Amino acid sequence: MPTTRETILSALTDLLSTIPHVAVLRGEVLPERIPPAGLMILRDGNPGEPSVTLSPLTYHFQHRTELEVVVQSTTDRNALLDAIVGQIGAVIAVDRNLGGLCDWIEPEAPEPVDLPVEGGASLKAAIVVVVLHYTAANSLE
User: Fold this and answer.
1) 139 inside domain
2) Domain of life, per the record (predicted)?
């Protein structure tokens, strides 16, 4: 049986996969070729130290994941990246608790990054931290 953490991360990956035409990977290395519509890579991140409620014993996590958003284009890189980031916010806003799996999902503002590439269109990327608030029965979940 998967842990609460794994169940939530899988559900987040599935939710992000509803964004049309943008590939979503989880924990993968950046591929050599970026699809024309862009690419997202979800990093598992850090669940951090949970707060604890003793009766009943419950662990409250604020798990920080990182979503790498990457586009490669000779034109309109900024607009393409901005459109994907906007779609991330829109799909999360529709289901802020992943169908009841977690208490709340909150994406933070994107941190843009320019990545030059030799002999081709440069990459434009952003890191979007997505904070997952959830409870679990033990600290290993």
Assistant:
1) no
2) Bacteria
